[in-house]
Each structure stands twice: as C-alpha cells, then as structure tokens.
C-alpha cells in the first residue's frame, strides 16, 4: 500500500479510536451495564451499534452503486454458518461478559496504559495465535 | 463534552461506522478489529502494513480523545486482573475461531445484512449477557 493511502488509514484508525472513546465503549462499566439485562440496563451500546451499522450499511450501498467496479470492495455475501462460527462466537461472548472488553476497546485502552488492557491484550493475542495456529482460523477473508 | 449524554454514543457510533467504511475502501477488506489484529500474528499475512497503521491510529485516536474530553475518559474497571487475563484468552480465541468480533461481525457484517454475521452477533450478545448474569450470582 502506498504512503498516501497509509496516512489515510491512520486517519481511519484515529476516527475509530475516537469513536470508541467518545461513545463510552472504552468504559467496562458501561459495556457491562448494557450486557446486564437484569440490572440497571444501559442502552448506550445499542445506540453505538445502531449508528455504526446504519452508517456502514448505507455507505456500502451507496459505494456499490457509485463506485461500481473501480472500487475493490468485499462481497459481503454470507458464508455458510458452520460450527466454528457458532462455537467461536459463543466463547467470545463469554470472554466479553467476563471482562467487559471486546478487541477494539481493549486496544483503545492501551492508549491510556490501563492495567486491565495491558494484561488483556497480550492474553488476547495468545488466544488468537492458538486459534489460528492449531484450529485453522487464519484463512484470508 | 465534559458530561456524558446520549449524544456521546450517537456521535461515537457514527464515527465508528464512518471509520470502518473508510478502512474498507482503502484496504478492500472488512476491517474487523479481531481480524486486523489477529492476522498480524500470522507470518504469511501479506498486507501487514495497513493493519499495523490502522491499529496504531486506533490507539492514538483513543488516547487523544481521553485527553481532550472528560466524557471520553470515564473508566470504571469491574473485574480483578486475573479475570481480565482469562477474558482476554477467551476473546482472542473465540473471535478468531468465530471469524469476527463486535466490529467485523457486529458492525460491518450486520451492516451488509450477512446472515452469518447476524447469527454470530446474536450468539455472542447472548452468551455475554448470560455470563454477566451468572458472574454477579456465582462469583465469591
């Protein structure tokens, strides 16, 4: 990838990290507040997802119309739902509920050198490595 | 933006969606965070540069926001560090086995109406809610 494109992708990453922080998704109490349906339920995560899904979904529709073949876009076609997806998503959810971190917010909290993130991110890397090395989860999308 | 209001999640969600869209156009891939990060750990991955730069941007953008706005800097850890380490292992393993996380499946896949991503999102939301429900009742 050329240098100009890499600068733009640095900006995209910056917007993503700002979005996570501004939305409150880097605060584990807010995320767990959403997941805790039996407690004082916090709707913030639902609003974040709705906004992000809406912008991304609409944006991709427009780009496919306007950009046509000049843009190299991922197909977005669903793969068959297999056991790995079901089991992996279930395990991910258990970890998410335990820690209140999913991958984006965990990385974002490295930006404040928070102890939980400094421990969580290396553990996450080990988990990813094991899945990719020994469970064949490294195929390119 | 000193006080957290409903505008925070609305603005933040729009930023995350727009950033994902931009990264998709630039990379030609679905820029889910677990996939972007996980494939950096595979030696054979050919396109490591944009992945590393994107994640560097993510960390920097968050750090800048923490410094600029009080409402972005709220941080209330809920679990002991030992639990966080176990949670990290499960999140890493599960997101790669399941082919995505909250961003790749939850934002991008759901945004494109992909059935596998909708299924994955319902599953991880469900097990996460069940885990929080049980954690508060079982933990010592």
Query: Averaged pLDDT of chain B, please?
Result: 96
* Largest interchain contact: A-B, 109 and 113 residues
**Largest beta-sheet details of chain B:** none
Summing up helix and strand content along with how strands pair, one would put the structural category of chain B as: mainly alpha
Distance between the termini of chain B: 38 Å
Oligomer: heterodimer
* Overall geometry of chain A: globular
Number of domains of chain A: 2
Span of the ends, CA to CA of chain A: 18 Å
Strand content of chain B: under 5%
Structural class of the secondary elements of chain A? mainly alpha
How is the biggest beta sheet of chain A arranged? none
Number of helices of chain A: 6
Structural notes for this entry:
The complex is a heterodimer of chains A (141) and B (140). Chain A has 141 residues and is mostly helical. Chain A folds into two domains: 97 residues, no CATH class; 27 residues, no CATH class. Helix content of chain A is 67%, strand content 0%. The longest helix of chain A has 24 residues. The relative contact order of chain A is 0.09. Chain B is mostly helical. Chain B has seven helices and no strands. Chain B is globular, with a radius of gyration of 17 Å.
Short description:
The complex is a heterodimer of chains A (141) and B (140). Chain A has 141 residues and is mainly α. Chain A is 67% helix and 0% strand.
Comma- or semicolon-separated keywords:
heterodimer; A: 141 residues; globular; B: 140 residues; mainly alpha; 7 helices; 74% helix
Give the SSE layout.
The complex is a heterodimer of chains A (141) and B (140).
Chain A: H1 3-22, H2 28-35, H3 44-67, H4 83-99, H5 103-108, H6 115-134
Chain B: H1 7-27, H2 33-38, H3 48-68, H4 70-73, H5 81-97, H6 102-111, H7 115-138
Helix pairs in contact in B: 6-7
